[in-house]
Write a structure and sequence with these properties.
Layout: H1 2-18, H2 37-40, E1 51-60, E2 68-81, E3 87-101, E4 107-121, E5 128-143, E6 154-155, E7 159-160, E8 173-188, E9 199-208, E10 230-240, E11 245-256, E12 259-273, E13 281-290, E14 294-302, E15 306-315, H3 320-323, E16 328-337
Antiparallel strand pairs: 1-2, 1-16, 2-3, 3-4, 4-5, 5-8, 6-7, 8-9, 9-10, 10-11, 11-12, 12-13, 13-14, 14-15, 15-16
Length: 351
């Protein structure tokens, strides 16, 4: 009974924190961040040559009686210029996600954004280009104070007592606010059109929540809970060691409200069937480390059109004592419709 009450108290504290009474909220994050291209950086909306559909799901903290789940759906439509050959001018994107936290889904967040990107070619053969992206939309946050357990409801003889009225009486709250994000990516691939590239790379920078909207779900906060800007810097290279095997070391650095996070790791890709220009099937294994937080492993299988990927976070921080050593599970599925024929696909570890 005591352990149950302690867990419930932790749940209440975390949910209450999410409502910004104690701390400012942070944007949701994915382990498979390159499978969320427009969410990672709006400029990546302009780099996929195919019509792209992506669905991502992440679940964590179930062992803490505080399940955290997020599902995201994204669509990217490339913009091509017809002429003597296709020229990739940019892209348009739509992204929707829904996030829930709490044993009874007490805290909910939903987002809808539209993005657009334009490509600037630094060389006529498209071996180097810069993509500039802008994204805007709305976020809705709701907090349900029903079913939460408060310290004032603790009876020293029987533990939690639902018949005790909480000393803090709060109504359910909701808030909707606009958000603006922007980003830029520099991409190079000397063999992009010759299909003979042994190395390609990219460096990107993005800023989320440029307008710093008021995200408080409590009406009496008087604008004190501004959603802090999130800065992201990411980059990597893709090295073809043979016709069938390649490696992709990558890194992501994020900073938001005096909190920093670094993800570093590598994908190993093996082409098990198909020719360079024809149908291909690839298997991809990834190993990652999120500094001072978790080790991540991933496994994916891709064809020319369909991609499936799974990853798991092995937590190694102090939170491990509360989660029982359990981490986070993440899954993604993507589907592509070829649009830009004659172009080598932008080379990232997209699954």
């Amino acid at each position: 009974m005591m352990m149950r009450w302690v867990k419930s108290l932790i749940v209440g504290v975390v949910i209450f924190s999410l409502s910004n009474l104690v701390m400012k909220a942070q944007d949701p994050q994915f382990a498979q961040y390159y499978n969320n291209p427009s969410y990672l950086n709006p400029a990546m909306t302009g780099l996929d040559d195919d019509i792209y559909f992506g669905l991502n799901y992440r679940s964590q903290w179930k062992s803490l009686d505080l399940p955290f789940e997020i599902a995201q759906l994204s669509l990217i439509y490339p913009l091509m210029e017809r002429g003597s050959q296709f020229k990739h001018r940019g892209g348009l994107g739509v992204s929707v996600y829904r996030e829930t936290a709490g044993e009874s889904e007490n805290f909910k967040t939903a987002s809808f954004t539209l993005s657009a990107a334009y490509n600037l070619f630094l060389k006529d053969d498209a071996s180097q280009m810069i993509s500039v992206g802008l994204q805007g939309g709305v976020i809705n946050k709701q907090i349900d104070f029903n079913n939460l357990r408060w310290g004032s409801q603790y009876n020293p003889f029987i533990g939690f007592d639902s018949n005790i009225t909480p000393s803090l009486d709060l109504d359910n709250q909701t808030v909707t606010f606009p958000v603006i994000h922007a980003g830029v990516v520099w991409y190079f691939d000397p063999g992009r059109k010759r299909f003979q590239s042994n190395m390609s790379g990219f460096i990107g920078f993005a800023v989320s929540n440029i307008n710093q909207p008021n995200e408080s779900v409590l009406s009496d906060q008087n604008g004190e809970s501004l959603l802090p800007r999130l800065y992201k810097a990411h980059g990597g290279i893709n090295l073809s060691l043979s016709q069938n095997f390649s490696i992709s070391p990558n890194i992501l650095f994020m900073s938001q409200h005096a909190t920093e996070q670094i993800n570093a790791g590598m994908y190993f890709t093996y082409q098990v069937s198909g020719r360079r220009r024809g149908p291909q099937t690839k298997v991809q294994v990834g190993t990652w480390y999120r500094f001072e937080d978790a080790f991540i492993i991933s496994l994916g299988v891709t064809s020319n059109n369909l991609g499936l990927a799974f990853s798991y976070d092995f937590n190694n921080s102090t939170l491990r004592s509360f989660t029982g050593g359990q981490g986070a599970l993440e899954a993604s599925i993507s589907y592509r419709i070829t649009k830009g024929k004659g172009l080598k696909r932008f080379s990232t570890p997209l699954l």
